[in-house]
Design goal:
two-stranded antiparallel sheet, single chain, mainly alpha, 12 helices
C-alpha cells in the first residue's frame, strides 16, 4: 500500500467519469424493459463489464505504470469477490418478498445507484480518516477481522429463512407510507385510484383491503428495495475498508469499486443460476477478509514500528485471483450434499 497520493492528473479523472457514465447509460438503455434476464445474456453482459474494467486498467497501465494498474485490478477483483456474499443476501431478500424475475433487475438498478453514491461517501470518509495516522488502519483491520469471524461463525445458515417483516428498512417505509400488500406491476408507489383498480380485477375479488382517498401506498417492491439498500449500506462498511487496504488514493479505490458495482446487476443473474454449484465461494470471501485484515495490520504496524514487512500490490492481486479460482475449483470438485426439497 502506498501512503501518499499518486497524484492523478485531471485527464485521468475525466476519462474515468466519461467511461463510467457511458457504461451506466448503456446498461440502462439495454435493460429498460421488464423482461427476465437469462443466463446467456447475463453472462455476456458480465463479460462486457469485465472488458470495460480491464480497458480502464489498460489506460492506467499506459499512463501511470504497472503499479497503479495492479492497485486498481486488486481493488476491483477484491470488491467483486466480496460482493458475492452480498448478492446471495439479495437473492434471499427477493425470495422473501416474492419479487418476479422481470422486476428484479429494476430493483438491482436502484441498488447499484445507491451503492455508487454511498461508496463515494464512504471512500471520502475512509481515505480522510487514514490521514489521522496508522492507528486508523489498525481499527479498519479489526473491523474486517470481526466481519470475517462473524461470517465464519454463521456457517451455512440459510438466509432464505430470514424474516424481513421487521427489518429496519421495512419499518422505515411503513412510517411514511401505508402499504398495499400486492404487487401493482413495476410500481414502487401507487395512488388510491390505482389500488381501487387493482382490487376490481377478478383475481382480487376475495381480497379485503380498505382504501383511503388521496393516499399513496407503498408496494412490496418499495419495501424490497429499501431492504436491499440498507443491506448494501451495511455491506459497504466492510468492503470499503477492505478496498482501502489496497490503496489510499481515492480515485483508485472509488474507480475499482465503481466498475465492480456496475457489473453486479448482471452478475446477480449469473450467480443466481449457478449458486447451487458454487458452494465454496463464501469460504473464499472469508479467507480474503482475513487476508485483507492481515495486510492492513502489517501496513499499520510497519508505520509504527518499521519492521519492513509489507504485501505488494501485485502479490495482493495474485492472492485475490488465486483464492477466487480455488473457491470455484473446489466447488466443482467437491459440490457438497444436495439439500432436500421442502414439501409445502
Amino acid at each position: 500500500m502506498q501512503s501518499d497520493s499518486l497524484g492523478f492528473p485531471l485527464e485521468t479523472t475525466i476519462v474515468f467519469v466519461v467511461v463510467a457514465v457511458a457504461a451506466l447509460l448503456t446498461d440502462i438503455f439495454a435493460h429498460r424493459s421488464h423482461k427476465p434476464i437469462g443466463l446467456k445474456s447475463a453472462s455476456l453482459w458480465t463479460l462486457f463489464w469485465i472488458a470495460v474494467s480491464l480497458s480502464f486498467a489498460a489506460f492506467l497501465y499506459v499512463h501511470h505504470g504497472k503499479e497503479v494498474a495492479s492497485l486498481f485490478l486488486t481493488g476491483y477483483a477484491l470488491e467483486q469477490v466480496l460482493s458475492i456474499d452480498n448478492l446471495f443476501v439479495i437473492m434471499a431478500i427477493f425470495a422473501w418478498f416474492k419479487v418476479p424475475d422481470g422486476y428484479r433487475h429494476r430493483i438491482l438498478y436502484w441498488g447499484v445507484i445507491g451503492a455508487i453514491v454511498f461508496r463515494g461517501i464512504f471512500v471520502v470518509i475512509g481515505t480522510s480518516l487514514l490521514a489521522l495516522g496508522p492507528w486508523v488502519e489498525m481499527v479498519f483491520a479489526v473491523v474486517i477481522l470481526w466481519t470475517a469471524i462473524l461470517m465464519m461463525r454463521a456457517g451455512n445458515d440459510d438466509e432464505e429463512n430470514d424474516d424481513y417483516s421487521d427489518h429496519i428498512a421495512n419499518r422505515l417505509v411503513r412510517r411514511f407510507f401505508p402499504v398495499f400488500p400486492k404487487l401493482v406491476g413495476p410500481h414502487f408507489l401507487v395512488s388510491s385510484e390505482q389500488v381501487e383498480a387493482e382490487l376490481a380485477k377478478p383475481e382480487n375479488q376475495g381480497f379485503s383491503f380498505t382504501v383511503k382517498k388521496g393516499v399513496r401506498y407503498a408496494t412490496p417492491l418499495l419495501l424490497c428495495i429499501a431492504v436491499v439498500e440498507i443491506s448494501d449500506l451495511m455491506f459497504a462498511f466492510d468492503s470499503v475498508p477492505a478496498v482501502i487496504a489496497v490503496s489510499r488514493e481515492p480515485l483508485i479505490v472509488y474507480s475499482a469499486m465503481m466498475f465492480a458495482v456496475l457489473g453486479l446487476r448482471t452478475m446477480y443473474f449469473v450467480l443466481e443460476a449457478l449458486r447451487k454449484y458454487l458452494v465454496h465461494l463464501e469460504k473464499s470471501v472469508i479467507f480474503l477478509l482475513f487476508f485483507v485484515a492481515a495486510k492492513l495490520a502489517l501496513n499499520s504496524s510497519n508505520h509504527l514500528w518499521h519492521h519492513g514487512v509489507e504485501i505488494s500490490a501485485l502479490a495482493s492481486l495474485y492472492v485475490v485471483l488465486g483464492v477466487l479460482a480455488l473457491g470455484i475449483i473446489a466447488s466443482l470438485l467437491f459440490p457438497g450434499k444436495k439439500k432436500p426439497h421442502s414439501v409445502s
